[in-house]
Amino acid sequence: MTFVRKHGWGSTAIGVLILGVMLFPLYWMLNVSLQPASSAVGTPWIPLDLSFDGYATALREQGRNLVTSLIVALGSVVFSLLVATPAAYALAQFKVRGAGVVLFGILISQMIPGIVVANALYRAYSDLGLLNSIPGLILADSTHGIPFAILIMRAYLLSIPNEVIEAARVDGAGQIRAFVSIVVPMSRNALVTAALFTFLFTWSDFLFALTLTTTEEVRPVTLGIYQYIGTYINDWSSVMATAVLASIPAVVLLLVAQRFVAAGVASGAVK
Predict the structure, then answer these.
(1) Separation of alpha carbons 223 and 85, rounded Å
(2) What is the number of H-type helices and E-type strands within the chain?
(3) pLDDT at residue 270, as a whole number
(4) First-to-final CA distance of the chain
(5) pLDDT tens, 119-164?
(6) Are the beta carbons of 72 and 220 closer than 8 angstroms?
C-alpha cells in the first residue's frame, strides 16, 4: 500500500511538472501582457505592477483584425457545414458509385501542404477578383474545413440505423425532409465537432491570409500579429495582449463544446 501511495504521488508530481512546462508559454504571454510597455527580456516573473495599456493598444489597433478573423471563421464554419453535411450523408447512406475514390481523394487532399493550395488559389483569385476579400478567405479556409468535416460527419452518420430514416420515409417524409428533420438533429455531436475544428483551422490560419491579402481593410489577426511584431517589437505588452485576446474565442469554444466533441469523436472512433 505504501509503495502504491508513493508511486501515485510520484506520478502526480511528474504530471504536474509536465503540465506546468506545457502551460508556461501561456502564463508568460499573460504575464507580459499585464506589464507596462517594455521589452520581454526585462519583464518580471510576476506582474506586481499591473497595467492594461497593452490591451487598450491592442483593441485600438488590432480590434478590426479580430473582427475580420471572427467573420471569416464563422463564415467558413457555416459554408463548410452546408457543403460537408449533405455530402457526408450521401457517402454514408447511399450506394454512390465511386464513393471509395472520392473518400481516398478527400484523404489525399488533407496531405497537401497549405502553401501549395494558397499559391494555386492566388492566380484563380486574381482572375475572379477575390483577392483581399472576406469571401475569398472563407472559400480558401473551407478547403481545409470541408474535407475534415466530411470525414467526421460520415463516420458518425454510418452509425445512424437505416430503420430510423426508413420510418420517417414511411410517415411521408421525402429525402430532404428526412435529412433535415431526422438526420441533422441526430448528428448534433458530430456537427459541433466539425464546426469547432473548422473554426480553429480558420482562426489560426496564416498562409492563406499572407498569400491572398495585402491590404489593411481585410487582414486577419494572425497576419496582424505578424506585422505588429515588426512595428512594436519594443512594446511586447501590446503584442502579448493581442495574442491573449486572439486566444479567448478558441478557449471559450473549447470549454463550451468539450462534451459534444468528446461524444462526436468517440462515436466516430467506435464506428
Answers:
(1) 30
(2) 12, 0
(3) 47
(4) 40
(5) 888 888 888 888 999 999 999 999 888 999 998 888 888 888 888 8
(6) yes
Which of 243, 218, 211, 212 shows the shortest CA–CA distance to 228? 243
Region of 70 on the Ramachandran plot (φ > 0 left; ψ -120 to 50 alpha; else beta): alpha
Global pTM value? 0.83
- Which long-range CB contacts under 8 A does 99-102 form with residues at least 24 apart? none
Instruction: Say what the pLDDT of residue 180 is.
Output: 86
Which one, of 87, 73, 10, 33, lies nearest residue 221 by Cα?
73
Q: What is the pLDDT of residue 77?
A: 94
Residue 37 to residue 236: CA distance in whole angstroms: 7
Spatial distance between the Cα atoms of 109 and 113, rounded to a whole number of angstroms: 9
Interatomic CA distance for residues 140 and 271, integer angstroms: 30
215-245 confidence digits (pLDDT tens): 888 889 888 888 877 655 677 888 888 889 9
For position 231, what pLDDT does the model report? Answer: 57
Q: How far apart are CA 213 and CA 271, in angstroms?
A: 41
Mean pLDDT of the chain: 83
Contact call for residues 168 and 178 (beta carbons, < 8 A): yes
Banded model confidence at residue 178, pLDDT cuts 50, 70, 90: confident
Among positive and negative, which fits the CA dihedral 254, 255, 258, 260? negative
Cell numbers for 34? 499585464
CA-CA-CA-CA torsion for 142, 144, 150, 156, nearest 10 degrees?
Answer: -120
Determine how many CB atoms are found less than 10 A away from the CB of residue 197.
21
- Phi (first) and psi of residue 157, to 5 degrees: -65, -25
Residues in the chain: 271
Q: How many CA atoms lie within 13 A of 189 on its CB side?
A: 17
Exposed/middle/buried for 234, CB within 10 Å: 0-12, 13-18, 19+? exposed
